[in-house]
Amino acid sequence: MFGRRKKTAPQHDESVAEIEVDASRTREDSAAVVDGDAGGDAELAADLGPFDLSELDDDRESLAASRLDLGSVLVPLPSGGQLQVEMTPAGAPQAVHVVTQHGRITIAAYAAPKSPGQWREVASDLSTSLRKDNSEVSVETGPWGRELHGVTANADLRFIGVDGYRWMVRCVLAGPAGAVSQDTPLVKIARDMLSQTVVDRGSDPHPVRTPLPVVLPEVLISQLASAQQQLAEQAAAQKAAGQQAPQQGVAPQGGAAGSGEPVDPTQTPPSGPEEGPRRGSSGSAMQQLGG
Hints:
Layout: E1 17-21, H1 23-29, H2 41-44, E2 51-52, H3 60-64, E3 68-69, E4 73-75, E5 82-87, E6 93-99, E7 104-111, H4 118-132, E8 136-142, E9 145-151, E10 156-163, E11 167-175, H5 185-195, E12 198-199, H6 218-248, H7 256-259, H8 284-287
Parallel strand pairs: 2-12
Antiparallel strand pairs: 1-5, 3-4, 4-12, 5-6, 6-7, 7-11, 8-9, 9-10, 10-11
């Protein structure tokens, strides 16, 4: 079992950059393993997460030994998953995506009221936003109840939400056509990850629906620094080439830094999709914080 609840604990009803990092190196410190073929809804029901850190017997250090510690959430990693860090224009981490051969999974926590019900409101707002983007939307039932399935021009999406005590977790799946239908490998992997996720709400006040802080472990910070330095060097080289080209009568050639593609400083991208599914033209459904 990935974490037992304390017996005495009460039960409570813009523009960004994405950089790939090496998940295999992260697993050396946080040996998380999720096998989407070895789980399933029947097994999830035995002791279904996400768990509140304050309600577990295990301490944070032991939980982080089998999960990726992102501050507000501790998330298990699937075998073969690649991490993709989304940064704000100011350079702060905004989200961490897990890219698999089947598609992309993003698990994040948000501030919520003490009483449950925020996910129902968020799901309604997401549904409205997706339909405004001319996407097909259906409501389905999963292990935690209401799930949204959206078919957009660029990707198929599935939104899974779970209400906790003063927090809400949202899991977003994105993949090619058919990848997020019920019982597909991507959906099984995501549900297994979500069922073993631990939430650390903290005691600081946050407005409802505000994303809880993402804090990267040192191994990711180091890889990000290397990747950002490489991007800066590529941009400088491209700028220098662009200044010299008119003098030589040769048009400047675009490079990786100008393409907007994520950069992995340690290895080539995993098999499967070469890049994460693109956002819709307005980006409203994928970029809003949950409503």
